[in-house]
């Protein structure tokens, strides 16, 4: 039986070495930017929370495509933190707008590669670059499959055609839906929420034609999004595991008022407002 990775390798070979994401990625630079985004997240957000039922279940020895919704600017930071927390032994990559990548070329060194599905040349380059990545068994791609920012409540979620093409070049890869949502609860900073669904191999997805495949992936992601949103709407931190804690507190004039009131009563000032979410023993506060 032919090695399913051979097709990805042949397609990747069409790219010159200077354009292959696996050759351009620099682990040291990625580590620096991961630390930067982590600190930025901690400063501006209250927490990153994982729904326990949606913990990633990914076997070793196969490349992974995480196809996600695209609700906010924070997605890039969430990707980098998720890669570091959930997939530390894998090489992480993410396609971004090709024009943006040309403007910010340094991003090629941290796993970004260009995507332009509006032209045949751009689509071919995206597939070849993805094939280069998916020829590695330790790779994970974070793919914002909607292709643009969309509200988490929008239905249908509207996945672009590109995600349905990837099983054709990587039948050996595992395709896993990843849902993200951001909401304000009881702190000044917003809460970020993530959940992963069950994976399917590219070979299994090839049983469907391309449009049916896209619809199927869309339905899988929608199911994870709906379940995650139900937990988020409960506003119950007990439904989540805290992956990363931010700098809690309401701040501003209200924070000053609370500080003064605590001093007057001789009490300890507590920056958090409302119920203090339970912090898991495994919480990794910087």
TrEMBL record:
Keywords, alphabetical: Acyltransferase, Transferase
Keyword Acyltransferase annotated: yes
GO MF, any single term: acyltransferase activity
Domain Phospholipid/glycerol acyltransferase: 64-183
InterPro entries: Plipid/glycerol_acylTrfase
Protein name per its UniProtKB record: Acyltransferase
Organism of derivation: Salinarimonas ramus
